[in-house]
User: Which sequence fits this backbone?
């Protein structure tokens, strides 16, 4: 009390020191929580990506049921010198007006999973991974026609003249073994690698190519994980240890030095690894001998 017997009214509020302590605590909490929130966000994207592939897998089963058990295929080669989208593992959805390297004589056609989009899976966003670090729905989807390719005027400079790419590497008929019934979902055959029988199981997977430039560097989940779609429409997630589920940077270095075969060899091994992952670990897959 003061001399007049009244209570001494103390000033309320934080001192500067107290305020600095509170700010420091908040900053510390943010620094602790942010990595966890970031991991949770990436984990949710991984789950959405996995769900996308599962729905694509169900679409492949429906497509096969309507098409004599055949999986969706790329366009047939237009001439003997055309590589043909039929035989390449690809993340391409649409072939524009002469823009495609893989099938230079095929124009204005849906390719790979694009065929599936045209027939049974009409949600275009399913062909894009939310953790696609290269392509994205906003960039690529406008290039994909919303109608049949043969109903379009597809001339250079017009809509849909450019190739369009999704987020998932689709096997198509790439290097199926001789014992396979070409394109038949129930008879995709097996490879014998180093005396180990590896059945063809993987149909699609996250695209992870660690190339040297914008045209060859495409990754989902920063190439740290890969979702793999198997022939029964199941999808499993694998950590990409030792780049066994990616085309490594070294492969593109070799290609840049003139060894183009290195990319084809690495793609073959990548698919073997993905097949072997069904019920096992891709890191334990037998190794192909590179072509000489």
Assistant:
């Amino acid at each position: 009390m003061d001399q007049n017997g009244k209570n001494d009214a103390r000033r309320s509020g934080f001192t500067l020191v107290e305020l600095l302590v509170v700010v420091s605590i908040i900053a510390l909490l943010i620094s602790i929580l942010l990595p966890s929130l970031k991991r949770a966000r990436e984990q949710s994207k991984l789950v959405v990506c996995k769900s996308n592939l599962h729905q694509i897998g169900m679409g492949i089963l429906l497509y096969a049921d309507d098409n004599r058990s055949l999986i969706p295929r790329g366009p047939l080669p237009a001439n003997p010198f055309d590589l043909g989208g039929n035989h390449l593992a690809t993340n391409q959805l649409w072939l524009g007006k002469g823009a495609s390297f893989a099938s230079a004589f095929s124009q204005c056609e849906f390719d790979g999973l694009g065929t599936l989009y045209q027939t049974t899976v009409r949600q275009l966003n399913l062909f894009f991974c939310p953790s696609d670090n290269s392509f994205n729905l906003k960039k690529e989807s406008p290039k994909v026609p919303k109608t049949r390719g043969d109903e379009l005027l597809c001339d250079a400079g017009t809509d849909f003249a450019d190739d369009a790419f999704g987020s998932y590497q689709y096997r198509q008929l790439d290097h199926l073994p001789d014992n396979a019934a070409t394109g038949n979902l129930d008879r995709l055959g097996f490879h014998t690698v180093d005396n180990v029988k590896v059945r063809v199981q993987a149909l699609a997977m996250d695209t992870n190519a660690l190339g040297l430039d914008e045209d060859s560097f495409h990754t989902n989940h920063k190439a740290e994980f890969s979702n793999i779609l198997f022939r029964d429409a199941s999808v499993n997630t694998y950590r990409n240890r030792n780049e066994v589920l990616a085309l490594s940077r070294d492969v593109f270095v070799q290609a840049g030095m003139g060894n183009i075969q290195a990319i084809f060899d690495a793609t073959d091994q990548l698919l073997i690894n993905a097949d072997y992952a069904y019920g096992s670990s891709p890191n334990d897959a037998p190794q192909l001998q590179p072509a000489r």
